[in-house]
Amino acid sequence: MTSSNLPHLLSKFSSAMGFFDNLASLLGLRQIKSTDLVILVIGPSGVGKSSFINKFAGQNILKVGHGLETTTRKFSHVLCPSRTEQRIVLVDTPPFPLSMQDEVRIKKWMRKSLGKNMIFHSILYLHRITDNRLNEPPKVHFHTFETLAGGEFHSRVALVTTMWDTLRNQEVGKGREKEIMTGDWEELTRKGSLVLRHENSTDSAAEIIEQVISLGRVSSYGTRS
To answer: What is the pLDDT of residues 56-106, one digit of tens each?
Structure first.
């Protein structure tokens, strides 16, 4: 190898390293930094939490269940590619309704998370638009996570409707969306919660994350940064 070839090879090596930097990866809780922007993805079984995270990550990093089958019984932390210097971590969570073991796991996870002083930006509550209504009033479950967002909890939660691509009649979906916004989700929308559609694509997932990030950041103790 001649010295004249060295700059070209170094450039190719640098480009390759940049490619790997842009790949998603699973993190342990200890690997999450206090400066990371953490977004929780919650909801019942079969709504597409793992699929949504895979779409945003741009790769199938999480195993996806079929139908109402769930493969998520613990927390999975996915470091996703970001266009900014700040790292974005999406957290896949156990599905609702929670078992007693799930409740124990969540409380244990929250204690460790709060001890790390993570930045919890927001919570995405996923719901199948193919369902006639929300399976359970979301407030039944929210008390578990309210500690993470402090006094600004309602404005930190976004309802993300999924399965739009499986609807034969989009107007039916729009009608259900309106019923949710004027029913179970009305109180949250009045307090600043977003209602967003996931179109089952990487672009759609990225647009949703961009919208919730634009709201600003909230720490685990509810203070803006």
So the answer is: 999 999 988 655 455 556 789 999 987 777 889 999 988 876 777 777 887
pLDDT digits (tens, 9 = 90+) for 22-63: 678 899 888 998 888 899 998 888 899 999 999 999 999 998
Q: How is the chain split into domains, by residue range?
A: 35-214
Distance of CA 55 to the CA centre of its chain: 11
Cβ(148)–Cβ(217) below 8 Å: no
- For residues 53 and 124, give the distance between their C-alpha atoms in angstroms, rounded to a whole number: 11
Number of neighbouring beta carbons within 10 Å of residue 147: 17
If you search the block for the tokens 């490619």, which residue do you land on? 19
Asked if CATH classification 3.30.2350.10 holds for the domain at 35-214, the reply, yes or no, is no
Which among 64, 45, 38 has a CA at the least distance from the CA of 145?
A: 38
Determine what percent of the chain falls in helix, strand and coil, rounding each to the nearest 5: 40, 20, 40
Predicted TM-score (pTM) of the model is 0.80
Q: What angle do CA 177, 183, 188 make, to 5 degrees?
A: 90
